[in-house]
Write a structure and sequence with these properties.
The chain has 2 helices and 4 strands; from the N terminus they run ααββββ. The protein is low in regular secondary structure.
């Protein structure tokens, strides 16, 4: 085939007929194939990085695992093409025809898909983060497990698109509404991929975000009152000043999250991972933290009045000046924790491990410390009065006890 030889020799073959050509694994980096006919061609595993394929015909072509980063595919016909696992990051697909194309697990990060036809395309597991889908047509497209974080969806036709994020049917219009307006109260966004998304001051009150991916998302000042976040991944998320009152956060991953000043009154955080979380001045009164892991968490000046912390882990946590009045800390591990100046009046600390904890200046009036382990604890200037204690458990305490 003369056209094939020309292409391999010069990497230039605009408007050539290369239909059904076998170019599997070929190095065509930067090649000029504008207007070429590559229908039914085998280009699997080929390197087409920065190639010019504007107006090319690739109908039914095999482009699986092909490198198409920064490729120019304006107005190209890729209908029925196999682009599974292809790398199309930063590719230009403006106005391209991808009708019924297979783009499963393709990398389309920062790709330009404005005005592209993606009707009935398979985009399951595709990475569309920061992609431009302005005025694209996604009617009937399969977006199960697709990553649309920071994608531009203005004017996108999504009316009957299948948004089966993580193997389930989701409400695609809700996702579009959220990304466009940052307002989606009571929406179903369960299992949605919103990793790294900017949702600052978003209204998600009452929303279903169970099992959603929100790691490193910006939710500072967001309204999540009464939201269902069970099993969600909020690792490293910014939740400064967010309203999470009466929210359902059971089993949530909040490791290292910034919850400074957040409102978590009455929230359900049973079994949550809050390791190293910043909860300075957080409002946690009446919150359920049973079995939660708060090791190394910063809870300085946090309000935990009446909170349920039964069997929680607070190893080396900083609870300086925290309000723990009437809190239930039965069986809690506070080994090495800092409770300096904390108010623990009427708190239940039965069976708690307070070994090597710093309780200097703490208020322990009417607290229940029966069977608590206070070996090595610092109780310098701690205030007692009506406190229930076992003599044998605090023989090695340090400091002066004030009544």
């Amino acid at each position: 085939m003369p056209s094939l030889k020309k292409l391999l020799d010069t990497k230039k073959c605009p408007n050539c007929d290369l239909s059904e050509a076998n170019l599997r694994g070929a190095n065509l980096r930067g090649a000029n194939l504008s207007g070429a006919n590559l229908s039914e061609a085998n280009l699997s595993g080929a390197n087409l990085f920065n190639a010019n394929l504007n107006n090319a015909i690739l109908k039914g072509a095999n482009l699986s695992r092909t490198k198409l980063g920064r490729a120019k595919l304006d107005e190209a016909n890729l209908s029925f093409a196999n682009l599974s696992n292809a790398n199309l990051s930063n590719a230009n697909l403006n106005g391209a025809n991808l009708n019924k194309a297979d783009l499963s697990k393709a990398n389309l990060n920062k790709a330009n898909l404005s005005k592209a036809n993606l009707k009935w395309a398979n985009l399951s597991g595709a990475n569309l983060s920061k992609a431009n889908l302005n005025k694209a047509i996604l009617k009937g497209a399969n977006l199960s497990g697709a990553n649309l974080s920071d994608a531009i969806l203005i004017g996108t036709h999504l009316e009957v698109a299948k948004k089966k994020i993580a193997k389930r049917k989701s409400d695609m219009p809700s996702l579009k509404k959220l990304l466009d307006t940052k307002k989606c109260p009571n929406c179903d966004l369960s299992e949605a991929n919103l990793k790294d998304t900017d949702l600052m001051r978003a209204d998600l009150s009452g929303a279903n975000l169970s099992n959603a991916s929100l790691s490193n998302a910006n939710l500072s000042g967001a309204n999540l009152k009464g939201a269902n976040l069970k099993g969600a991944d909020l690792k490293g998320a910014d939740l400064k000043g967010a309203n999470l009152s009466v929210a359902y956060l059971s089993g949530v991953n909040l490791k290292g999250a910034d919850l400074k000043g957040a409102d978590l009154k009455g929230a359900d955080l049973t079994g949550a991972n809050l390791k190293g979380a910043d909860l300075i001045r957080a409002k946690l009164s009446k919150a359920n933290l049973k079995g939660a892991d708060l090791s190394n968490a910063d809870l300085r000046r946090a309000n935990l009045k009446g909170a349920n912390l039964v069997d929680a882990i607070l190893i080396r946590a900083d609870l300086s000046d925290a309000n723990l009045i009437e809190a239930n800390l039965s069986g809690v591990d506070l080994n090495g924790a800092i409770l300096k100046g904390a108010n623990l009046s009427s708190a239940i600390l039965e069976g708690a491990n307070l070994s090597d904890a710093n309780l200097s200046d703490a208020n322990l009036k009417d607290a229940n410390l029966v069977e608590a382990n206070l070996n090595g604890a610092d109780l310098n200037k701690a205030v007692f009065g009506g406190t229930k204690m076992n003599q044998s458990k605090y023989l090695k305490m340090q400091g002066v006890i004030e009544y």
